[in-house]
Amino acid sequence: MSNQVIPYGRQHITEEDIQVVIDTLKSDYLTQGPKIKEFEDNFASYVGAKYAVAVANGTAALHLCALALDVNKGDKVITTPITFAASANCVRYCGGEVIFGDIDPKTYLLNIDSVRTLLKESPKGTYKGIIPVDFAGRAVNLEEYRKLANEYDLWIIEDACHAPGGFFVDSHGEKQFCGNGNHADLAIFSFHPVKHIASGEGGMITTNDETLYKKLLTLRTHGIVKDNDLYENTVAFAGGDESYPLWYMEMQTLGYNYRITDFQAALGNSQLKRADEGIAIRRMIADRYQAAFADLPYIKGQSGSIEGHAYHLYILEVEDRLGLYNFLRTKNIFAQIHYIPCHLMPYYREFGWKEGDRLQAEQYYKHCISLPMYPTLTEAEQEYVIEEIKGYYK
């Protein structure tokens, strides 16, 4: 077992996945074809949203959301420091200002009390929106965030990259799946290889707002529209007589080329069929980790059997994290650290952020380590990981 590399995450590509990609490569469309709309429709149905827009990657999805919500220079947006940098960077792409809240040390999610304090300390209208993150696969209670956002006239972008298929239970006892659009204005997902659904690269935006949906479609493709009812130039200018010619299109705003390809969409569609199966396996792996590490004095683990947790990551907080990390690598166990607090990255330090500003996030970072978590992780491999960790501390 020690000769076999065990990473923290890994894609699972089947023969069916490979075949659908081959079939698409042999088809008439490699991009802007029917597989993209098919993937969008299936994904929207999977999370329970009205609309979905497939894009090049999760970062592009975040950027388009910020653009669609009209983030401008100086606009203040609140997010968590424990996330991949893109969750914050999308605000900066638009010239906005990122304000980091702190995390709840029990859930690792953006602490709503921290957000509420930030809002209370400033005049109403100071902030424009909130970007909560379903970190590690645990769903943020967006019902609570929606109430707070409504109080202060804020929009919400749900970063659900870690949590397709995850959910929280609302005050009525109903499951609210990540990205369903019932509470967040927009939600985003990633299809990076270590995520639940892998398409190489790729992302998705979901929403229940038709106006935002149409805006996203335009922004995704250079700001260009092809719709007779929306054209601003005259028919004569376009080169037609009684109607616009078929070739005509207009760039009406500054957009981007954030499109996904048809063969990526085909792969994503194939992977989507196994999404629930993958989550079920991830939850079994999490339960085994929890049982193995329960009550050990040198480890703080995620509490077991969290309802709705999608388990993109399984995280421990340990003593001597550096020693354990290096030891595991000698055993070909490639654990990972998620994440270095964003507010202490050199770029964000330029805006005045410093150590001590977000104590819970900083304390978490000193001890966190992500263990191998992916559907093809075998029980024998997991047991090897568990025994090596226990052996290190003995």
Explain the layout of strands and helices.
Elements: E1 6-7, H1 15-25, H2 34-47, E2 51-55, H3 58-68, E3 76-79, H4 86-93, E4 97-100, H5 112-120, E5 127-131, H6 142-151, E6 155-159, E7 167-169, E8 175-177, E9 186-190, E10 203-207, H7 210-220, E11 224-225, H8 235-238, E12 250-251, H9 262-272, H10 275-293, E13 299-301, E14 314-318, H11 321-330, E15 333-334, H12 346-349, H13 359-365, E16 368-371, H14 379-393
Helix pairs in contact: 1-9, 2-9, 3-4, 3-7, 10-14
Rg calc: 22 Å
Question: Looking across the biggest beta sheet, what order are the strands in?
Answer: 2-10-9-6-5-3-4
Mind telling me the CATH class of the largest domain? Answer: Alpha Beta
Contiguous low-pLDDT stretches (5 residues minimum) are none
Q: Structural class of the secondary structure composition?
A: alpha/beta
CATH architecture of the largest domain: 3-Layer(aba) Sandwich
Q: What is the name of the CATH topology of the largest domain?
A: Aspartate Aminotransferase, domain 2
Helix content: 25-40%
Relative strand content: 5-15%
Mean pLDDT: 97
- Beta strand count: 16
Overview of the structural elements:
The protein is an alpha/beta fold. Strand 7 and strand 8 form a beta hairpin. The chain has 14 helices and 16 strands. Strands 2-10-9-6-5-3-4 form a 7-stranded mixed beta sheet, with helices on both faces. The model has no long low-confidence stretch (mean pLDDT 97).
